[in-house]
């Protein structure tokens, strides 16, 4: 890989116009209000995990449409008092896996909810209202002609409901909940940060789903290439596609966020190009009353792996400082 995007000094000031629909806020307010008519009905079933330091619970709750969403809740085995929590969203095509795959946050003393991704993991199906529509392989163009039928309307709603689930657990301090994720998970975390006004922190790593107009034209790597593949075949929808995606642009959601934020970016990332990440970072908190508490860590010679374990050390220290807990 090699540097292919803007130079770092230009990335640091890159503030593109975001083509937001005029009813962006109304769309999301209506979506969440409708979905809150469904009870969360959260269930936490203890499961053996073979670990001496972490207790694991198999989680099921009602997400978009009242559909059952799966997850894991990991708690430190030795705990006292309400815990700060991290809700983690997953990368493109990933499911929740098995409990011992993700234990960093519970090992550090947090309650950790790992949300399965509808239609992408092995355990949470996606009853798709757009299943009869034509789409490119993947998820970006599912329901692409109508934002009310788009895949990410359902997934972003699940993400908000996951925050509500963890806040309702007796082991969790509802005032100290952070959201996190890598790639698709980072984009979902930004959407959740824009849709949930009182989060304690957000940690998006190499976030996907940001600044669609540039992302879909600067890289030919999947998943963004799904959009160009669709429009290449369906030229008549070249105007409709960007209008639909604008409702799900994580950079627009980032403008509405107010929680402290820690981003990471790989400057050789051809999957989530650095300019799209900086678009979200530079716009982050723009609609707030005061300057946002935000940081970004660039990794100049890294691709989509970003900072990897090195950045995990940064995240542990940063989040401990924000949530006043020992890392």
UniProtKB/TrEMBL annotation:
<protein>
    <submittedName>
        <fullName>Acetylxylan esterase</fullName>
    </submittedName>
</protein>
<feature type="domain" description="Acetyl xylan esterase">
    <location>
        <begin position="1"/>
        <end position="320"/>
    </location>
</feature>
<feature type="binding site">
    <location>
        <position position="92"/>
    </location>
    <ligand>
        <name>substrate</name>
    </ligand>
</feature>
<dbReference type="InterPro" id="IPR008391">
    <property type="entry name" value="AXE1_dom"/>
</dbReference>
<feature type="active site" description="Charge relay system">
    <location>
        <position position="304"/>
    </location>
</feature>
<dbReference type="InterPro" id="IPR039069">
    <property type="entry name" value="CE7"/>
</dbReference>
<dbReference type="GO" id="GO:0052689">
    <property type="term" value="F:carboxylic ester hydrolase activity"/>
</dbReference>
<feature type="active site" description="Charge relay system">
    <location>
        <position position="269"/>
    </location>
</feature>
<feature type="active site" description="Nucleophile">
    <location>
        <position position="183"/>
    </location>
</feature>
<dbReference type="InterPro" id="IPR029058">
    <property type="entry name" value="AB_hydrolase_fold"/>
</dbReference>
<dbReference type="GO" id="GO:0005976">
    <property type="term" value="P:polysaccharide metabolic process"/>
</dbReference>
<dbReference type="Pfam" id="PF05448">
    <property type="entry name" value="AXE1"/>
</dbReference>
């Amino acid at each position: 890989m090699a540097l292919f995007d803007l130079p770092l000094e230009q990335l640091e000031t890159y503030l593109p116009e975001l083509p937001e629909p005029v009813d962006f806020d109304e769309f999301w307010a209506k979506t969440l209000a409708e979905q809150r008519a469904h009870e969360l009905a959260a269930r936490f079933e203890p499961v053996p995990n073979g670990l001496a330091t972490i207790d694991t619970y198999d989680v099921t709750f009602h997400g978009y449409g009242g559909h059952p969403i799966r997850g894991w809740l990991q708690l430190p085995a030795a705990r006292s008092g309400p815990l700060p929590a991290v809700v983690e969203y997953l990368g493109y095509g990933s499911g929740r896996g098995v409990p011992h795959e993700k234990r960093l946050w519970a090992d550090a003393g947090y309650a950790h909810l790992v949300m399965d991704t509808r239609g992408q993991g092995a355990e949470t199906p996606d009853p798709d209202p757009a299943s009869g529509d034509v789409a490119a392989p993947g998820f970006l163009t599912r329901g692409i002609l109508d934002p009310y039928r788009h895949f990410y309307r359902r997934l972003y709603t699940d993400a908000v409901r996951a925050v509500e689930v963890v806040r309702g657990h007796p082991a969790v301090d509802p005032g100290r909940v952070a959201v996190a994720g890598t790639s698709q998970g980072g984009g979902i975390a930004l959407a959740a940060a824009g849709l949930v006004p009182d989060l304690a922190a957000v940690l998006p790593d190499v976030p996907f789903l940001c600044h669609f107009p540039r992302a879909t034209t600067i890289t030919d790597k999947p998943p963004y290439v799904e959009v160009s593949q669709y429009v290449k075949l369906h030229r008549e929808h070249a105007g409709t596609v960007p209008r639909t995606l604008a409702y799900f642009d994580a950079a627009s959601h980032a403008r509405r966020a107010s929680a402290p934020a820690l981003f990471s970016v790989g400057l050789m990332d051809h999957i989530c190009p650095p300019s799209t990440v900086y678009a979200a970072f530079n716009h982050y908190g723009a609609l707030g009353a005061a300057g946002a508490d935000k940081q970004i860590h660039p990794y100049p010679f890294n691709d989509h792996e970003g900072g990897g374990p090195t950045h995990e050390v940064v995240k542990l220290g940063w989040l401990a400082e924000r949530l006043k807990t020992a890392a």
